[in-house]
Amino acid sequence: MSAGEKKRYALLFFVLPKKSSKELVDIKRPKHRSRTKHWVAGGIFVCFLVVVYYYRDFVISVSNRFTEYFTQTYAPNVTSPEVRHIGFLKVHKAGGSSVQNVLFRFGLKRHLSFIMPTKDYKFSTYGHVHVDLINNKNGCYDILALHSVFNKTTYSQVLPSDAVYIAIVREPLSLMISGAYYHRDVSFVSYLRRVPKENYIQNLIRYPERYDPNELSLTRNSMAMDFGFPKGFHVTDTERVQNYLSYLDKQFQFVMIMERFDESMVFLRRLLNWKFEDILYIPLNANQHKSAEELQLSNTDRKKFEERNFLDVAIYKHFKNIFLKKLSVADSEFFAEVDYFKTMRTELEEFCSSHESAKSFYHIEESRWNSPITVTHLDCDTMKMPELKFIDKIRQIEKQGRSR
């Protein structure tokens, strides 16, 4: 190496940064620390998962409450189309006439098509195909709101694929009592007219083999019949019953509870994205009769009833539990709307109860749930229109519309 090269090498060596002894040690040291950090992070994550699993019910509850709050607080402000395709399972003697009236008014206002028989007042009965319908050129209809027996295949043949299925249920004993009197005194059902009038309900309960032998009838598991339960269930077939209820869960987006009717209507409004005015109603087809308490049924009678109507008991318990869970995650905004709805509906009913009222209309002021609403006595007449008369009216409209 020449003297010049030695000089340049010495200069380069001097300029380049020198490693300290600590840095040299770090270079040689294995990277155990980074691995340790990864293990610690992984351990923390595993512990987090264990805690979440252990408190999963609490986490799910908080999540549901947040979802419900977000839906009720922000979702109503998001513009989305109202649901117009609806299949309503009108369960006998469960408040279905009031829901039907709401659906009829909603559809007529928007010129929607209804599933309507050419002659009858029902869409289908147990064990039979549906009746002849007024033809729809489009193949599918918008709304089904008649008495029927649920059958997914049949429903899907006449309703669009995006139709929302809803139903309503009622406490089984009160439903059976109401049905027994109504079908005897109004519909004149023959087997009920053979039951002695003295201790009428008690006779039906105590002696089903004599007066009500069918496992599915208008007074024995009638809700199960409407929901399309197959025959052959026994009171001990709890797993089979639960399997069918699970099947129904997948078919119906919402099942209303008659005893919580106003809460059900508000839930329905939110599910269908309807306006407040769309769910206003006046109770219809209320049958006056003695209640279970007034009949003074014994504990033995009640137990016997639960055994003979075990399917209806299971149906009501199942859907009521789902409904109560839905209520448990509803926030104060929902209950405030329910209270407001009850007040407006009571005032509406008072206005509609007398045509001699000095007021020619009922006005509902704007609120955070509704725009201003004006109800006339003509609107009252439509809300109070008897079921069969309303069906005849729509039948005539459908016939005229299809003939064009």
Give your account of this protein's structure.
By secondary structure, the chain is mostly helical. It has one domain (81-403): Rossmann fold (3-Layer(aba) Sandwich), CATH 3.40.50.300. The protein contains 19 helices and six strands. The protein has helices at residues 3-15, 21-28, 32-54, 56-73, 96-109, 152-158, 172-185, 190-193, 200-206, 208-211, 222-226, 238-251, 261-272, 292-295, 299-308, 310-328, 332-352, 377-383, 387-403, and strands spanning 86-89, 143-144, 164-169, 254-257, 361-364, 373-376. The strands form two sheets. The chain has a four-stranded parallel β-sheet. Strand 1 (86-89), helix 5 (96-109) and strand 2 (143-144) form a beta-alpha-beta unit. Helix 15 packs across helix 16 (310-328). The N and C termini lie far apart (110 Å).
List the helices and strands and how they pair.
Blueprint: H1 3-15, H2 21-28, H3 32-54, H4 56-73, E1 86-89, H5 96-109, E2 143-144, H6 152-158, E3 164-169, H7 172-185, H8 190-193, H9 200-206, H10 208-211, H11 222-226, H12 238-251, E4 254-257, H13 261-272, H14 292-295, H15 299-308, H16 310-328, H17 332-352, E5 361-364, E6 373-376, H18 377-383, H19 387-403
Parallel strand pairs: 1-2, 1-3, 3-4
Antiparallel strand pairs: 5-6
